[in-house]
């Protein structure tokens, strides 16, 4: 990817990445300082504008990984991405935004398509978004399972919005709705590790939804996401539901799992879910597959057709219940589970999947 010299990028301000490295973030994990919102804003404007040389950009990304970005910085990055890159197309309905980690999964079935379609068939619109083999995991994401199901994924944002309204389930493709971040793909691939871009791209919210659903390994990350939304001047999300997910994705982890819940104006709350109490009495190994994309698509079709009553079916039902609860369309997970199972048993979920597969681009 060709770049311009940062010395030629004076229109951005006084903080080229090399200066930020030497004076703020680059002195090491223990002594580095956090950037101000203004400094973080200028830094990401330069990055999206292609100003930094590859070596400088890589060093900056790595220094921020060591230092660990704070919500003020992440909120500024999010705002720059929103202004400079994201192309939103809001459907008429108000969906739940599922922004799973774009670098995907590599071992376990991806159940978010099945869970989202079940929720949609029960009256809760769901939007998912992803890229195509995003670093550093370069794993299977929403796009790949949908491709295996024969669903059109190379959509412009307006078509994604129509899909959401027509079907109840919509897919937004990163190269179309977030082209500035997509243009960084090659340079991110060269890094070999995750960067702050992996965090902020999940919050792109291309459908302008009020509710964000995501996942975390540790509760501290959920707190950071909520604080990032609070720090952002552009974010429109007023409710966040996150849980411990398998491989960092938005498929709930079996066993004792923490769920974090936030509504605008309130503090972050958390509670523990024992998945066995909701019918998901399985181990992580029970949800592993050989070919994540193809097997996840086959599992989706079979579960929604009512042809499976195994660990995968139980996991899909609970994940659908979490999406229904995120939208506040059910009072609790017990009601959500009942609604989800009814949608599968009545054939409503299978009909919604057929509508999704038939959607014209």
Automatic annotation (TrEMBL):
<dbReference type="InterPro" id="IPR035902">
    <property type="entry name" value="Nuc_phospho_transferase"/>
</dbReference>
<dbReference type="GO" id="GO:0004048">
    <property type="term" value="F:anthranilate phosphoribosyltransferase activity"/>
</dbReference>
<dbReference type="InterPro" id="IPR036320">
    <property type="entry name" value="Glycosyl_Trfase_fam3_N_dom_sf"/>
</dbReference>
<protein>
    <submittedName>
        <fullName>Anthranilate phosphoribosyltransferase</fullName>
    </submittedName>
</protein>
<keyword id="KW-0028">Amino-acid biosynthesis</keyword>
<keyword id="KW-0808">Transferase</keyword>
<dbReference type="InterPro" id="IPR000312">
    <property type="entry name" value="Glycosyl_Trfase_fam3"/>
</dbReference>
<dbReference type="Pfam" id="PF00591">
    <property type="entry name" value="Glycos_transf_3"/>
</dbReference>
<dbReference type="GO" id="GO:0005829">
    <property type="term" value="C:cytosol"/>
</dbReference>
<dbReference type="GO" id="GO:0000162">
    <property type="term" value="P:L-tryptophan biosynthetic process"/>
</dbReference>
<feature type="domain" description="Glycosyl transferase family 3">
    <location>
        <begin position="113"/>
        <end position="349"/>
    </location>
</feature>
<dbReference type="InterPro" id="IPR005940">
    <property type="entry name" value="Anthranilate_Pribosyl_Tfrase"/>
</dbReference>
<keyword id="KW-0822">Tryptophan biosynthesis</keyword>
<keyword id="KW-0057">Aromatic amino acid biosynthesis</keyword>
<keyword id="KW-0328">Glycosyltransferase</keyword>
